[in-house]
Amino acid sequence: MNSPLRRVGIVVLVLFGMLFVNLNFVQAYKADSYRTSPYNGRVQVAEYERARGVVEAQGRALARSQETDGELKYLRQYPDKGLYAHVVGYKPVNLQASNIERSEDEFLAGTSDQFFADRLKEKFTGDRISGGNVRLSLSLAAQRTAATQLSRNRVGAKRGAVVALDPRSGGVQALVSMPTFDPNELVSHDRDAAAAAYKRLEKAPNGPLKNRALAETLPPGSTFKVIDAAAALENGYTPQTAIPAGRAYTPPQTGQVITNAAPSICPEDQVTLREAVRESCNTGFAKLGVRLGAEVLKAKARDFGFEDEKLVCGRIDGGGIAVAPSRTGTMSRPDGQVDPAQVAQSAIGQRDVKMTPMQGALIAATVANGGAQMRPYLVQQLLGPDRRSLYSARPEELRRPVEEGVARDLQDMMVAVVESGTGESAGIRGHRVGGKTGTAQAGVGEEDHGWFIGFALAPDGTPVSAVAVVLEHAGQGGSREAARIAGQVMRAVIGQSRGGGD
């Protein structure tokens, strides 16, 4: 054989060898992923042969499957459209599921190991079972009230969120993000229409797909003063301790002046810690923050849950919707030295401090619950197709940021905010309500964010609800409106617990 033919033969043998290796690689390593890929048409048809389980709350179906006469046997439906979209999520044909539909996908689909015996029985009986059912902790009245009040807010805010928790258990009573979207558009069996709807929502103004209750972090403004006050109480201060205040404060080594929201707020040289909370005294808390120091503030914020990168909201025993970590940010110069100006700004919830609405609700819930912060959860119960209980949430203490005595002092100070301070619009007759408003600067030329975090206690002192409300770019009156909305949500919880509402 001459040299050119030999070279051609070698090339052909190498190509055949590569083809052989590739075929074996596909068979040995990739076959299973191709077989189970959601883009495999046969897999999709098989998945829709089984009715997906119901997501429910208080006896109402929030997500269910309806039989069709199409190639895909069952169509997912969301009867309340956008009301529960950022809790339940959606389960589309070609796109990834979201929220509870994603975190409880195997259970809802009936492919969980918990249903092995049921699937085995199918092979003998031929009767195909449906997926499991997920019961949520939501209060229908609180959820509807939160959504309605947010969308009809009196300051014209287009974006915002509400989170309400049961302080004793951590169960989520309401979780609303504004604006919302209709998940029914995303689960259409017309794949092109569903993809087009997703692209439209993804590009829509104000980001309706974003879960602002759990994933958005914003400067918390004066709501962060609850953490300042907790740190002070643990470092020798009492509610009656006098702290420096005044009309204006220029931190050391800076020309940036910190003032109060109005000249009438703590113009005195000194005010008590209790009055500083009630009036929301910027100068007092800025000076207090510098005196306590960056590390004390950061440590106390971590105690309450800041910097937690592993928190999810779903089941108590793991799995759920990820919660973005809240941050205190840097309070130091590039050389590592603490910057008093940054500490002062951070102490009033500005600078690099960022917080989620969930974190705000956890702070209020901790104070209401005597210093114990319970792990937040949405999944109250998992039920088999035959409605037998396979899981029930058992409340779990997540952390203890403050001792009971400190929590009691914080309660009293926050109650003063609602009784005679900046949070009066959150008041509920017959219940002890406490809270803290916050107005946070959003940026040059932008309207301020309005915040409120608070709680309601029954006449016997039992915690009933803890709520955080944020209205983004709400401008003047935003925090007062946030307090009003929080009060309405807590009223809905109270009304339902008395047997009213849904």
For the structure shown, list the relevant keywords.
single chain; 502 residues; alpha+beta; five-stranded antiparallel beta sheet; 17 helices; 38% helix; globular
3D structure, described in words:
With 502 residues, the chain is of the alpha+beta class. The chain has helices spanning 3-36, 41-47, 85-88, 99-103, 105-109, 116-125, 140-151, 191-203, 212-215, 225-233, 273-279, 282-292, 294-304, 340-347, 357-368, 404-420, 478-497; strands at residues 55-57, 60-67, 74-77, 133-136, 159-165, 172-178, 242-244, 248-249, 258-259, 270-272, 312-314, 320-322, 373-374, 379-383, 389-392, 397-399, 432-440, 449-457, 463-472. It is built from 17 helices and 19 strands. A six-stranded mixed β-sheet has the order 3-2-1-4-14-15, with no helix packed on it. The chain has a five-stranded antiparallel β-sheet with strand order 6-5-19-18-17, with helices on both faces. The protein is globular. The mean pLDDT is 91.
